[in-house]
């Protein structure tokens, strides 16, 4: 793998970002060797040690991401995979976030009109779980058509990762915004560009 980013690699995954992703697995060098041969291959990585992942339906996940970048601290790496948004979070988030959501009465069993009904179930992947991440070239036309791409690509060996409180805040605000939005034509899904220099 080259030490410099290929100009044609629109995914933005850097060698340091790839090393960070690979460090989640049991055999990081094997993962990096696999990517060196097939940078277009998605890989299954375990959660719970290097990162947790919060998975949301794509539209709601994009609303959360917009809140995090427009009004908050930014985000860690974020991928889109098969109709869901994968928000990479600090280890431990998957265990704590569901309790915070329940405490906020945002669970599906106690929906108030105009409140929790706007929040879809968030899937929290932590210790003992694994997720499929897009390929290192997860921004090419072919991968975008397949619904697998990086929206905020890993670009460092030590990325800032949001914890459960930040993701709770983003979910609450995204849900409140969704209640206020009337039915309208969908926005251009490629319109959002996230400035990673603002990320903590």
Structure explained in plain terms:
The protein is of the alpha+beta class and 200 residues long. The chain has one domain. 32% of the residues lie in helices and 16% in strands. Strands 5-2-4-3-7 form a five-stranded antiparallel beta sheet. Strand 3 (78-81) and strand 4 (84-89) form a beta hairpin. Helix 3 (58-70) packs across helix 6 (164-180). The relative contact order is 0.23. Mean pLDDT is 81; it is low at 1-10 and 107-116.
Strand order of the largest sheet: 5-2-4-3-7
The low-confidence runs, each spanning 5 or more residues with pLDDT under 50, are: 1-10, 107-116
Order of helices and strands: HHEEHEEHEEHEH
- Anisotropy-based shape: globular
- Considering DSSP H and I runs of 4 or more, what fraction of the residues is helical? 25-40%
* Rg (C-alpha, Å): 17 Å
Structural class category: alpha+beta
Characteristics:
alpha+beta, two-stranded antiparallel sheet, 6 helices, globular
Short summary of the structure?
With 200 residues, the chain is an alpha+beta fold. It has six helices and seven strands.
Show the helix and strand layout:
Layout: H1 15-22, H2 28-37, E1 43-46, E2 52-57, H3 58-70, E3 78-81, E4 84-89, H4 93-103, E5 123-125, E6 130-133, H5 141-145, E7 148-152, H6 164-180
Antiparallel strand pairs: 1-6, 2-4, 2-5, 3-4, 3-7
Helix pairs in contact: 1-2, 3-6, 4-6
């Amino acid at each position: 793998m080259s030490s410099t980013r290929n100009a044609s690699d629109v995914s933005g995954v850097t060698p340091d970002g790839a090393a960070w992703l690979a460090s989640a697995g049991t055999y990081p060098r094997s993962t990096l060797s696999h990517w060196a041969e097939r940078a277009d291959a998605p890989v299954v990585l375990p959660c719970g040690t290097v990162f947790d992942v919060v998975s949301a339906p794509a539209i709601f996940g994009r609303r959360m991401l917009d809140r995090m970048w427009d009004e908050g601290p930014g985000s860690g790496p974020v991928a889109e995979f098969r109709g869901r948004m994968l928000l990479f979070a600090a280890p431990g988030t998957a265990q704590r976030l569901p309790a915070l959501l329940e405490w906020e009465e945002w669970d599906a069993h106690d929906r108030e009109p105009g409140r929790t009904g706007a929040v879809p179930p968030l899937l929290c992947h932590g210790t003992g779980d694994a997720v499929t991440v897009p390929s290192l070239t997860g921004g090419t036309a072919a991968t975008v058509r397949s619904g697998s791409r990086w929206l905020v690509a890993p670009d460092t060996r030590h990325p800032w990762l949001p914890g459960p409180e930040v993701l709770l805040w983003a979910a609450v605000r995204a849900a409140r915004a969704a209640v206020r939005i009337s039915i309208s034509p969908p926005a251009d899904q490629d319109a959002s560009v996230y400035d990673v220099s603002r990320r903590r």
